[in-house]
## 1
Amino acid sequence: MSSNDYKSEEEILGKAYDSKLMKRLLGYIKPYKKYVIFAILLNIIVAALGPVRPYLTKIAVDDYIVNSDYTGLLYIGLALFASLLLQAVIQYFLTYYTQYLGQRTLYDLRTQIFNHIQKLALKFFDRTPIGRIVTRATNDVEALGELFSSGIVMVFSDIFIIIWILAFMFFMDVKLSLVTLSVLPVLIYGTFLFRRKVRESYRDVRLHLARLNSYMQEHVTGMSAVHIFHKEKDELKKFSSINNDYRTANINSIFYYAIFYPSVEILSAVAVGMIIWYGGGEIIQGSLTIGVLFAFIQYTEMFFRPIRDLSEKYNIMQTAMASSERIFKLLDNETFIKNPDKPVNLGKVKGSIEFKDVWFAYNDDDYVLKDISFSINPGETIAIVGHTGAGKTSIINILTRFYDINKGNILVDGIDIEKVDKKELRKHISIVLQDVFLFSGNIESNINLDKEEISREKVIEAAKIVGADEFVKNLPAKYDEEVKERGATLSVGQKQLISFARALAYDPQILILDEATSSVDTETEQLIQKAIEKLLVGRTAIVIAHRLSTIQNADKIIVLHKGEIRESGNHQELLAKRGIYYKLYQLQYKDQEVAVS
Amino acid sequence: MRNLYTLKKYFTRYKKKLFLGFIFILLSNAGSVYVPLLLKDSINALQQNTSEGVLLKYGLMIVGASLFAGFFRFLIRETIIVVSREIEFDLRKDFWAHIQKLPLRYFQNTSTGNIMAHATNDINAVRMFLGPAVMYSTDTFIRLMIVLTIMILLNVELTIFALLPLPFLSIVVFILGKKIHQRFTLIQEKFSELTTIVQENFSGIRVIKAYVREESESEKYAENSKDYLNKKMSLVRVQALIMPILFLITGISIIIVIWFGGIKVIDGEMNLGEMTAFIVYLGILIWPMIAVGWVINIVQQAEASMKRINIILAKPYEIEDTEISDHAISKLKGNIEFKNVSFRYNEHLPEIIKDFNLKIPSGSSLAIMGYTGSGKTSLINLIPRLYDCTEGEVLIDGYNVKTIPLGTLRTNIGMVQQEPFLFSDSVTNNISYGLKEIDEKRVKKVSEIANFDNDVEQFPHKYETVVGERGITFSGGQKQRCSLARALAIDPQILILDDSFSAIDTHTEEEILKNLKEFLNGKTSIIISHRISTVKDADNIIVLDEGKIAEQGTHDELIALDGIYADLHFKQMLEKELTELN
């Protein structure tokens, strides 16, 4: 995580409600509309079961206890128990049910985001740090969880509870209700004031926490600079001052909580006091029974909770809005490589390739390939050589349509690749990249990449041909041997052999090979050379060559320099020219000749 | 609890405030427990046809008692919770003071995320114990004692019946809490698995696109996502139980009071006021009962976190001033000698430097060349004791570096690392990092030597420009020149440059080297480089290979030797030709 991630947290607190965002969010619940309505209806019923109990106690006091009716009291006891049990059971299922709805929606959203990102062009991945993309697909979705699962339904449930309580209170005694509710404006005002203050101080706390975290993050990364300049003492002072700001912010926020919670209790005591004074007065006058007093005291307690929790719900909304905004921004990103409307079928590919006056730039017109033209016959191998930055990798990127070219045409079997479905195109081309990427899984899944058509037998066959079978056989679990993240347990050479086996198992007509420069021991080097020879047999191949042997075996060598083709021909011809190739040869390949001989 | 015992010294530091906090808890409970008694009296008075004046008195007394309780409740938070923040501050400070002094080895072997997790999550878990857990457990205990006493005084039998279900509450919260914690851990594991899949997929997107595996990847992700959903729901199944069970148990207590108490009222063994008081007392006891189970879980988590923190606090500094440090040494001339020096990063790794011997006279310049992994950086790291050698000794002016006070040693050495680290602070502050106070003239002067001044003048806020902020990202070359200026600013007697020109073009490099010549007059310098152009004028050049000196001499001598150095020279000439070719 970069320090920027901590900083961006400062900006998290935004609007708590944005109707556009909300509308779009609610769109995700739409498929489950029926279920949501059912949950809300159920809520209306269950919301009444709590408020009914104080009313029942009123009956118990007024009708049975005062009149010494034992059986009546027993019935009330049973009725109370029944309502309690019913409420507990319904509440349980309702919670489970709404949570399921919420999680199910998250599941849909998560899958949608993943699929969307996967479809984006490589340009997007070049520009966006992986960490950020991962955060969108995981943490940001998680932040919506509370909104979907409890937020929406719970708001309804709170409202219904309040309505029921009001109904019972007013049914029993209108005047006493009004007296009791007179503290309500103060409570609501206080809650909102508290919410605002807490939000401010919460923002303050977050800000200082972000500073503290980014200080630590930065200094853990740059600890060597601290040591080299012997700044430990001064840095500790700096740290203490940031740490102190964080402490102060926290202590300030304690104040609001310390005021708010006792105040709510005092307010509820005021309500009770008024019930005693005013209600008691009515009892003396005979216009009210003791049972009603009893019930009202219980209602005050019930009433205060949902209102007190309002501030919490507000936070849920705020986080959800911020996350959804970021998610939707990603979903609205449409950096795609476009597929043609009516794709031409490649059919059975023979494997001829032609580049015709190709110009290509990653950004605007900063061309990395300039007017490139060459052709390869089916079954031929061409080697591309060049100094760093000559544009070798870009040739791979455009042939597979990872990027689209700016000018010119690329033809496979005489068909322009932009007229072909990109997935179909890629099915005929296998790429072996210099930097081998292994997924966590096992050896087999890294060779067949979970393609069911490539059976275990085919995997082993491919591994045998490229010589990977030798070392795989010696692993404890053979082809089921676990591959950790990025293949950490395998050597560089082994990883390469696996990637060769992968390319071979997919049996493409066209092969692109970006040879690795990293040095391996002589034995592995020979294995790799043999594997490459086998790999190239019967296929059209483009090789970004770092091996002398590969170059010497190629049908043709293309020398790229600063984005242009400067020389081409076979090894001997090019050497004789004493041009760029000759220099490259001395720089990169000559030593290998010595090593081999 | 053994690990939490470490916190004792912090508690002692704030014992006065904590003691006050406990007094406040006592007082606050006295107030809140009085309210139900007032209710009882007022209801009893009502049944005896009292006057409105008496009722008003009771009403006001209820409010008064609550005010009293609330006032102290405010003070409880302002003492106990505040203390928890104070201790958190102290603990984090001690933690950081310790971390800072750990050797570089620690930072190389521990991920930043890991250290951050200790500094944030673990300290936070301990804080939850210090504040809320301490507050609620004391509060619960005191309240329970007082309420129980009063209830028993009112009616023993009813107390026993009414409280019968409540212990179940603590048990349920504890058991469910544990289950929830377990399932929660499973969910977190699954979540990080899900994150890994996403991370891997996006990192390996080229392979996935090249082999057209998008659909199977989507299926895999959907499958895992579904599994995550199921795990979540298994948590919900337990979590959703809590509230209903809570209501059920407390509700049953209240029903018992109404039914059983009602019978007693009818029988005349009790009055209606006492019954009301009972119901209200039950309400007061519910939260503490829930808190008991909750507190136990917090304590368990704090214990685990404290254990992790203690492990770090117990790590030795390794490189520090000891009794052999000679504090009389305050200035170094810069005579460096390596005597039979061997070095390895740890006992399981092979030796990087093998029995190395070299003298670098004061005022001379040394250049080091060699392939990646030949031990160049490891060698120079031994001079300012970023690492200590495993065998042999490194001497400066005849003193073993281990006897030179760290402060003296490091302030006499200016070092520019391979990948220099700049702080997100202004250019001035970065360059004067090693200085006691900011000296703008000096900053300007060293920037000129490092050929950085021209760049800075182009920045929007010149020397006040903040590194890395709002699009001001330094290029590799700017970073290197800025950190060169930073090293020069302290006017070191020994200057060490670890491949510090790699991102700077040869033309600029030449100018810097020219500027440095004057600056380095009488100073010792060591330059690591891959470029012949950087090293060719050094008094002595060594070519390092597998931790040993393979070739040594001046530029001309080494060319004449026709070995590794000469080969590199030839290749670099070729490369130059290639890059200049159009």
## 2
Amino acid sequence: MSILPNILFAVLLIVGVGYFAKNVKKLIRNIKLGQDVNRSDNPSERWRNMAMIALGQSKMVKRPIAGFLHIIVYVGFVIINIEVIEIIIDGLFGTHRVLSFMGGFYDVLIGSFEVLALLVLVAVFAFWIRRNILKIQRFLNPEMKGFPKNDANYILYFEVVLMTLFLLMNAADLHLQNVDGGYGHFTQVGSFPISQFIAPIFDGMNSGTVYMIERAAWWLHIVGILIFLNYLYFSKHLHILLAFPNTYFANLNPQGQFDNLESVTNEVKLMMDPTADPFAAPANPDAVPAKFGASDVQDLNWVQLLNAYTCTECGRCTSSCPANQTGKKLSPRKIMMDTRDRLEEVGKNIDTNNGVFVPDGKSLLNDHITTEELWACTTCNACVEECPVNISPLSIIMDMRRYLVMEQSAAPMELNNMMTNIENNGAPWQYNQMDRLNWKNEN
Amino acid sequence: MSENISVPTMAEMMAEGKQPEVLFWVGCAGSFDDRAKKITKAFVKILNRANISFAVLGTEESCTGDPAKRAGNEFLFQMQAMTNIEVMNAYEVKKIVTACPHCFNTLKNEYPELGGNYEVVHHTQFLKSLLDDGRLAIEGGQFKGKKITFHDPCYLGRANNVYEAPRELIQKLDAELVEMKRSRANGLCCGAGGAQMFKEPEKGNKDINIERTEEALETKADIIAAGCPFCNTMMTDGTKFKEKEDTVKVLDIAELIANAQDL
């Protein structure tokens, strides 16, 4: 045997993994463009969340049909990838099913991979029908036109191709294992509960042809996996990796607790301190004054940016959003998609300008997310509750409202009236604070 | 009836050298809104009946800052918060009860970081604890056998995971508790949160409170129970829009209990 295939395989592997690693580096750099936020507290609770929500899929099953189908594909993905280890070793060293020394256990492994592959095919078919035939509202929202819709289907097609190649490869392998007198290094190993039904199509075929089919399926399968791996960075499918850090770093406070801006606290404390010297020189005269709220992705914190990359656009948030359900423009999913789009735009800007961001006259606010969307939110937390991987679209909406109000004084007029009332008389309506207890004596 | 209610203020208590068991945070709606004032009084009547030592801040109370914060005005929120905290810390307040989930959430979750550390409970939790301690007895009265559905306020439910206290109180009324299609963590907002109460909604094809009211009406309940003055307004408006205000009442849990005892 020539070692040419082994070298070719090694090169493919290095290129595939290398390009992916390059994009991961970019991904991490982009996420780090966000503001600092400390999420290192309570590691035990964080690990537990990750185990339950990402690994255990606990929030997925809230919608049982999609949840069940997802678990099949998820388990299939995780388990079948064990096979990739064997494929890599076989590819590098020209061995045949190198893990088969495990004997009976190997049979169980390959057998379960096959059963899972079939189940994945069935589940993916069901997903495709849900997305393309059934009229499920959350797949039909305006933000799902164009690439987002195609992206979802591409992922499904990828899975179909990979699973089919996997089964075809096994079927051909099985056929060669059983050729009278044996064929090459195809010794009888493994158990093939599914592909044994495909194998008969090779009956009567020239062993050389079957071998070519087996090799073709084998190569296409691993090349497909490498392409899929590299597609992740450009796709919503990135969630298969980021769901884990995302659930780990998610907010642990009660959902109703919104953060208190520290920059504001310092100002208010100074304002209320009778001993404060109004003419005192600032502690750090060169410091750039803090910007209140967020108008662009760099103003958001890194967890919010991680959220944006993690979002797989399932739309459970949008389908549970009271504003969206009643025909308002706001869609929490679109908030996440816009954030990612803008972050990518900023990242590309940095790439083309030798590592520095050159202002492009655009921002997340207005160019991607409109004020109409932001003001439609009731802060009800339904989107946060729904998200299967603990993304918070609400926190982005809030930070952008803060920018609108505190940097631009651009609140809707009625809200300005409400805030004026609170400032002047301590209530959102125009009632005198001195009348607060009048109810006591009223009938 | 209202002539009989006793509502001491923290200032009066302090002058007498007394410290109440709990501060009743009335909130802006509870103080000024005509509908919400009825809830305030109903709750006070229950407190009076159970001989609870409580006090209000009266004219020293000011908006918690919740609507300002949710609208994005962190400055105004923190000024309100720090002023309120100074007042409450001066009175050495330990425990607060409030009938407004927005005040509840803000006082409980957002005040501690600014120096206001109190035990904060929603009035349904407080009433439930009185019941458990045998300090309050609840009878069904006029609500016996009635169908009641409970609308989860976002800032009580999802925001703070309080789902059971209001439901257990309703069941104590010997009423039949019926759930809406979306309840507890899946509950649909009434449309008032996030400062929406104070503005017209954005353009859409329906108002949120109508959507929620329709869902409540689907249960064929006689009463929509609420635990928030803003939800109460939104759901009441919803029943009016659906021309059901004569047959389906929107009542706060405190009102249900006070009415059941003929207080």
